[in-house]
Amino acid sequence: MGSLIAQIVSVTLMNLGSLRRRLWMSLAMVLASAVVVAILLAFLAMAKGFEETMRGAGSSQIAILMREGSSTELNSVILQDQVNLIGESAGVARDANGPLVSPELYVIVDGIKKSSGTEANIPLRGLNKTGMDMRTNMQLVEGRMFTPGTNEMVVGAGVLREFNGFEIGKEVRFGKNLWKVVGVFSTGGNIFESELWADIKTIQSHYNRGNSYQSIRTKLQNDSDIKPLQDSIEREPRLNLEVQTEQEYFASQGKQLQYIATFGWIISAVMALGALAGALNTMYTSVADRAKEIATLRALGFSNFSAFCGTIAEAMVLAVTGGLLGSLAAFVFFDGLNTSTLGGSFTQVVFSFEMSPDLFLQGAILALAIGFVSGFFPAWRAARMPVIVAFRHAA
Amino acid sequence: MNEFYLIYKNMTRKPLRLFLTCFAIFIAFLIFGAVTSLKTALNSSVELSADNRLVVFNRINFTKSLPIAYYQKVAAVEGVKDVTHLNWFGGYYQEPARQVVSMAVEPESYLRVYKEVVVPEDQKRAWFNNRQGVLVGEKLAQIYGWKIGDRIPISSNIFTHKDGGYTWEFVVSGIFKGDTEQYDTRQMLFHYKYFMETQTFGGDWIGWMALTTEDSSLNEKVAKTIDDTFANSQNETDTSTEKAFNKAFIEQIGNIGLIIFSVVFTAFFTILVVVGNTMALAIRERTGEIAVLKTLGFSSSRIFRMVLSESMLVALVGGLSGLAAAWLLVEGVKTFLARFLPNLILDGNIALQALVFMLLLGLITGLLPAFNALRLNIVTAFNRQQ
């Protein structure tokens, strides 16, 4: 047994030592494996980053209400008397100042994207004091909060990163109105950072919204229990609203880029087939080249199995090297890459690619699989070829 | 001996290797064909827009509305040929998930501005005369099986009907086609007046305007005149060509598309490099045989031609079958994806690009070995064999 292992080790070392002689072949194999891994990781990192941005935004303690059938805040319309009715409903948490209900408004404005220099949609959200207090994970990174009743706004860190002209102290014009940036806020990297926040009454009056809103957020009395709210909506014909927890709402929106991960897996799988064909080819040729050497080893008394293992080991080493290079390339080019795309509410969602450890694991598995498959068949063939035939062919 | 037979024999001497090489090329071009079609489909609205068509939006953002009074003022601007106005309805059929692109428009001027919309004369008349009438695009009608005369309920995810509920009833007055295959006919158009009379918000506002200029050279001047007219008013405007607007809209989706496509194309080229390497090596292995052929009296140019043809042939066999598979794939998913990507098509342009890459692959992998073969000195070659 010990001698078998010793044989395998020495054959493997010999194979690896002679790699330089088959430089181009070996490089081709490394490259094939690197590309497949890099592609897979790029797609997965994108989907992961988007999902994290969305998932982090939703709280199970907060319910969000919109007009039924609206599906996003942008389309929804809610009137003042509906807000009052919700405030009286069961299941809504209260404090000393009354029910914790935040009617919110949403105006889409244009910003200039740094990456392309073109206009893109950013949500300008109107909030009142209750709405601000409800967002417990909000932190001012710089500056101060806006003063209600003035044309002041605070900008999300994501907006600042991806768009031009939202630095503190800058004045921004939306239509006839000039807004002054007085603060930058962070919400831990989630979707709210892609927004601008300002006083709700000011927005209503500037943009002719009268006394209408677009969504209501309310703190729930019991965590994720929306049943009492749902019941009051059903009983009250004036409440044509749909209720869900914020967590559910953003989870469904986060699924949006799920197709990218799926697409990535499909493309990588197909590409992997192509690369595998290339890798197999390389290994077959490389083994055929050395048919005589392998036969010599076997004639010297090395077992078939050690010759087989040596070849597989060589293929795996090449594939894993490629996998590492591919992961590294993906990490260098994509990890933390900031980008933004049009989200479900028709506005820009700023997010970063995220290369988490489990993605590396997936890449490593893929590389090992490529190495194993592309080594197995040529190794099998080499190990089974009768020694005499190998010598005759090589001659 | 027949030259082609020799090439064939050389090519198939190692069937497994030939198969693997062709397969890798096949995969590369399958992906190239499919992904390029996808990319073209995503960009197609940009290329289809007319040169002399401008769109006028609220400066704040295109989701903000404009007063209807602007319509007459824009019509009076010099250089404007026809102008129409549109309102986004946010329609869906039966369930919110089944969204229908639906717009409330001023019928007669709409058809003047959007010449791509082709409607038979009698259906056009019927639509003009029926206030509840709706003009449905061919593809949209196909998806839901709507026919002329059908009464269809369309709901809005934004507006409320003044009789309660969110559902409007329309009568299909006509079905329109696009003037080209690529024109997206998954949309429906209905009367602005009917919309305004039946929705609860009231008011005289329009979503945006589209206009054609007398000539595309006037575009800039017209756009400037319009924006100047409304400068410093309650609703300032932003006028741009439809092309520029569409392009900006697609850019909102962002560099995500760009990132995906560049990643895929890098992969495509890498596979070609890997395969090309094997192909070139396969020919180099045969140095000795080529020396034999030369000894037998094959002319250098003939050998050059044979070596090059062989790699060309491998590239074309793999590449063309991959392209064919991509075409089948695109045709197969076309109807399935019609709702999202109406213009998914693998056209001659893409096929041509693919062909160029195949030829390049064959040329580059074959050229160096072919040159070596051409210049090969018989004596050195035999010496090297030892």
What does this molecule look like?
Chain A is an alpha+beta fold and 395 residues long. In chain A, 51% of the residues lie in helices and 22% in strands. Chain A folds into two domains: 2-55 and 256-394, no CATH class; 69-239, no CATH class. Chain A has helices at residues 2-17, 23-55, 80-88, 129-134, 157-162, 200-206, 227-235, 246-254, 258-289, 291-299, 304-334, 357-384, 387-394; strands spanning 62-67, 78-79, 94-95, 98-99, 101-113, 119-127, 139-143, 152-156, 163-164, 171-174, 177-186, 196-199, 212-213, 215-219, 241-245, 338-342, 348-352. Chain A is elongated and about 95 Å long. Chain B folds into two domains: 3-46 and 254-385, no CATH class; 65-234, no CATH class. Chain B has helices spanning 3-11, 15-48, 69-75, 107-113, 121-129, 138-144, 192-198, 219-229, 242-253, 255-284, 287-295, 300-337, 348-375, 378-385, and strands at 53-58, 66-67, 80-88, 91-92, 99-105, 117-118, 133-137, 151-156, 167-178, 187-191, 205-206, 208-213, 237-241. The radius of gyration of chain B is 30 Å and the shape is elongated. In chain B, strand 4 (91-92) and strand 5 (99-105) form a beta hairpin. The interface between A and B is large, with 59 and 55 residues.
